[in-house]
């Protein structure tokens, strides 16, 4: 996607200034507080539209080795790995009506994974499943989630349509005492928090949002009873409707073309333009897929992660938009001013090519200019789609650019931007999920560790973990999240390795008779030092970014935020830390208490 730096194109100085201006337009003093939760007066928007109301069951009261909170890929893979280690007495507690996590909730039309399915869908070799397309649809991924659950016999362990309401560490029993919204009382040796990265929907904090009198829903709670159709069928219920979509990120890019085909009028409310590259979707080549040799998926997954984090493998096995656009790792620390400038120039050229693509596709010059993203390629998740930009050539599709402010207010009739009211029958919030909010907030409960201290209290001034997995003050608690953990373009790679790590810890404890495991605070501080060292280059880069969940909406960096980091280097390097730690004897940096010693002592 590189282009020649011609005289007609903007200079680096001009682009720097443009990026800075676009960033300043979007900065908000309230930071993360600009978003609203789906609770209180918006609680109905959080209702699960995919289950029949009135579900009941008898409470479960039992002792088990592990309670897993979350039934998405993180929770499922943890359970599968535990089973491979011979640990089959576990419970999975899941709010949704089935397995799948974000792929249970995201059933909006056009939804699909933006990472190729051959690297994203875990355990393809074990299940023998062949994705139908290079980029699997949400429908297919949800079905695959259920296939995984059946293949590895997870359903008997699941408690669906159930929220964890509390979890307390019982010092005397050396167990977690877990309660749920269904009256369950689960006593477990270990608790795994696999609540997911993209599962708790959020709303924009638009003044008057509660005043809108038309139909409204979040994309993760799509109401096909109103729109008609299904994820695979046209939405005939929108033929006479004026529809508004708020949000132009990865979700908006996918849903807009589907609505554009059927709605009477579609208004797309844009705060910040997304970067949209070429997707090149295509059916899976059956002959190619059947020719793949044993071990192919692990090799392909690693190869993809290498390609998008700067390792530049000899052969790019995936060779798609991700590996073309993202191959330079600008989060690393450059060695010289020349290297800084070279990385910046490469970044500018990549984004300029994306902007030129808009001119080539969008017919109206004014609309094309408004759709152009002016931010660095690592500031937000780049999108890849072949139908989003052409949708703006349709006469029924209208881009309402808010010039970085967002929608000014909502009236009973619809959104207001720059003094103009846009009456709509249906308002769709493509506003994404909470990613960098407090962990207990996303979980929906606040675990109590030693001496009754809650996670929110312990982490009031920032997180304390070893590798983002173990947390001092919370014995036998294992985390799978972004907080002080890894990060990668291919989320399922991160989740797979995290689940493997968690299952290995539990297996080792069971085999060695370890009743309690907890990291030393000194080891947590050493890990924090690693996070700071690796993230030094990223801090400089993200200072110039537009607000997003990647940078917590450019909220001011305080002592708390300085601890709530992710490992911003290569995901493979993060995995290396986990593997090295597992190979060291006696759990380095961790305090353990063996059951036999405790009983004798």
Strand tally is 21
| Named CATH architecture of the largest domain | 3-Layer(bba) Sandwich
Helicity level, as a percent range?
25-40%
**Overall spatial form:** globular
The parts where pLDDT drops under 50 for at least 5 residues are: 1-7
Number of domains: 2
Instruction: Supply the CATH class of the largest domain.
Output: Alpha Beta
Distance between the termini: 66 Å
What fraction of the residues are assigned to beta strands by DSSP?
15-25%
- Major sheet: size, sense and barrel closure? 7 strands, mixed
- For this structure, what is the CATH homologous superfamily of the largest domain? FAD/NAD(P)-binding domain
According to CATH, what is the topology of the largest domain? FAD/NAD(P)-binding domain
Give the radius of gyration.
24 Å
Count up the helices: 21
Q: Which class best fits the helix and strand makeup?
A: alpha/beta
Query: Taking all residues together, what is the mean pLDDT?
Result: 89
